[in-house]
Amino acid sequence: MMEILKSIREFERTLGILVDPEKLKVNDFSAFAKAITSTASILTKDLGLDQIILLIGGSTMEHVGLEAWLSAFRQQIDFKLVLFPGSAQQISERADALLFLNLISGRNPEYLIGQQVEAAKKLRNSTLEIIPTAYLLLDGDQQTAVERVSKTQPIPQSEVDLITDTALAGQLMGNKLIYLEAGSGARTTVSIEVLRKVVETVQVPVIVGGGLRSLDEIKKRFEAGAKMVVVGTAMEEDLNWKG
Fold it and tell me: Is the pTM of this model over 0.85?
């Protein structure tokens, strides 16, 4: 049953908080749980949120035992956990769902089908809610980890037609979500113009993230039609963050 996808479709405002296991150690889970619960309460009120989910993932995660990390993390956290994998190695049955990502902004076959085939081997009998997601990396005015690892180039935000055509292609290929990403800590966030055009073009929920640091920036993305807004760096820098 597609519970998380259904909730993103039906709710108007879902906030995704990105948690990178390489940056959050097991010894810090208890303190993190208290801080994130308090911060989530504030954000829910100030942003009029319908729900908050935690996205779990990173670009490499070379030094993390994901199974053990998730097992310990679940004991401290009540939020739904959705895997946001950088590769087929970042899959675990200890989460609630998985964004099955296709990096359609690039042309590297490894991230269009190669990693997906490797992931499929692990997901044959999975109990995870698997959500096909078209992933578009847009230029955020600095090189990102996704760009380095995938060896692909982001789409310039001035190329609005290319972005919307790519997003529509993602929908036509059967993806259930469109994810517009400017990259962690982006200097330039996904513009309101680009977001609106994509929302007007596709008929599936649109997620947007990368470099969003204030309540006002998040509110404007929801108002422009994003069903889900993702924050990461801002939360890492200050768990009492209020915008």
Answer: yes
